[in-house]
Specification:
- The structure is a single chain.
- It contains 10 helices and 27 strands.
- The protein has 458 residues and is of the alpha+beta class.
- It folds into 3 domains: 233 residues, Thrombin, subunit H (Beta Barrel); 94 residues, Pdz3 Domain, CATH 2.30.42; 95 residues, PDZ domain (Pdz3 Domain).
- The strands form 5 sheets. The protein has a 6-stranded antiparallel beta barrel.
- β6 and β7 form a beta hairpin.
- The relative contact order is 0.12.
Length: 458
């Protein structure tokens, strides 16, 4: 199942992926009011990332990737998915009115797919409030909002299709499933309830077709999990996630019968971390956890969520089944190891190289020959430089450039050879220009496009 789940961030190529129709409920007047109120706090995120070379001996290439997010504090605190910013050289947050801001990363959760960004505006920004995902019921009305397919902010209506879905991303998975559209580019956007509050972070979609889009099955991180993680990332004094040092799996009826467990449910310990709190407390693999502090979590992931929110150094009273009887063991909650308060953005030599390197928009250039004129139906009088191929997933493909297009001028200066194009690109890069204006002629249409030139932070 994992290979059929796709994170909902989007690179250039995703914007032209074929879509499979998916039906959801239609929007009503209440939805419209909620969407209008929420829109100012929903943002688009564009990032420069590095894509590995596609050919032996090739060089890495900068590509533009898109995602979504939402503002939770007037000072400019933005929440999104961790996978949106992973490996990024730089990030830009664009408000619904089109205002762009350079974003910096405040924190990234190591296991839960959440990141927190900061933008600096000269005025307080509109926000969205956290809702209570624990109160959700299957069938509740919801909205998704975000930069789906990188075509701009959009809204979709749907319902909660299921709760507590396990995508095997973390020991705590409790995803909300919805039929409100979550397409590539919606990653990090809000899932909003009937009160206009955020009850989830749109994160993934399901499609058995590797090249497919949304088919009515999307997933969001519940706000109960997201708020806990975000509060921790923003406040160094906030309670750290609790840890006991074991791995759990759900008890099945067959395992219960084999072990003689009389009570239904529970979780069985499959791994004990050496030297961890569970090991020190005398817990063993094969112990069946039935309750923690008199609470009976429904499954292994719920058990882990119950542990992670307990205060560090507090005592957890665990009811276990061992040797045919119930027993009680007390373990001391420790801080979750290997936390990652900051990260995600690329740093070091690779980032510096990609900032300094003149970007390759992903095209091959050639002289216009009689054979090319015949192949692409070019006007015999047309002069310029032929684009002979366009690499998928690059800036050029995102701009709609295709083989057979002809570059006729750059910054208003006519060009006739590939070397003239390359010289113009390099000169603009050395002058730290953010973009280069390129006039492209196809069979019937001439149009200007802007190619990214300057440092990735521009």
């Amino acid at each position: 199942m994992r290979r059929l789940l796709f994170c909902a961030a989007v690179a250039f190529v995703a914007a032209v992926m074929p879509m499979t129709p998916a039906s959801a409920r239609s929007m009503d007047s209440a939805d419209a009011r909620i969407a209008q109120n929420a829109t100012p706090a929903v943002v688009s995120i564009s990032l420069w990332k590095v894509r590995d070379a596609t050919t032996p001996g090739g060089t890495p290439r900068r590509v533009k990737v898109y995602g979504s997010g939402f503002i939770i504090d007037p000072s400019g605190i933005v929440v999104t998915n961790k996978h949106v910013i992973d490996g990024a050289i730089s990030a830009q947050v664009v408000l619904s009115d089109g205002t762009p801001y350079t974003a910096k990363v405040l924190g990234v959760a190591a296991m839960v797919d959440i990141a927190v960004l900061k933008i600096d505006a000269s005025h307080p920004l509109p926000i969205l409030k956290w809702g209570n995902s624990d109160a959700l019921k299957v069938g509740d009305a919801v909205l998704t909002m975000g930069n789906g397919l990188a075509i701009g902010l959009s809204v979709s209506a749907g319902i909660v299709s299921a709760l507590n879905r396990d995508l095997q991303d973390s020991p705590f998975d409790s995803y909300i499933q919805t039929d409100a559209a979550i397409n590539h580019g919606n990653s990090g956007g809000p899932l909003i309830d009937a009160d206009g509050d955020v009850i989830g972070i749109d994160t993934a979609l399901y499609n058995p077709d590797q090249n497919g889009g949304f088919i009515g099955i999307g997933f969001a991180i519940p706000s109960s999990t997201a708020k806990f993680v975000v509060d921790h990332l923003l406040d160094p004094h906030h309670s750290k996630p609790g840890w006991l040092g074991f791995a759990l799996q759900d008890m099945t009826p067959e395992l219960a019968q084999a072990l003689g467990v009389q009570r239904r449910g529970g979780s069985i310990i499959s791994v004990i971390n050496a030297g961890g709190p569970a090991s020190k407390a005398g817990l063993r693999t094969g112990d069946v956890l039935e309750a923690i502090n008199e609470d009976h979590p429904a499954d292994a992931r719920a058990f882990m969520r119950a542990i992670v929110v307990l205060p560090i150094d507090s005592q957890a009273k665990l009811t276990i089944w061992r040797d045919g009887k119930d027993q009680t063991i007390t373990a001391t909650i420790a801080e979750w190891p290997n936390l990652m308060p900051q990260g995600g953005m690329m740093t070091g030599k690779m980032a510096a190289m990609m900032v300094q390197k003149a970007p390759d928009p992903g095209v091959k250039l050639a002289l216009i020959t009689d054979a090319a004129r015949k192949q692409y139906g070019l006007d015999p009088k047309l002069n310029g430089v032929l684009i002979s191929s366009v690499e998928a997933g690059t800036e050029a493909s995102d701009l709609g450039i295709v083989p057979g297009d002809v570059i006729t001028s750059i910054q208003g200066t006519p060009v006739t050879t590939p070397d003239e194009v390359k010289h113009a690109v390099m000169a603009a890069h050395e002058q730290h220009r953010p973009y280069l204006a390129v006039l492209i002629k196809s069979k019937d249409v001439a149009r200007w496009v802007s190619i990214s030139i300057g440092p990735a932070t521009s």
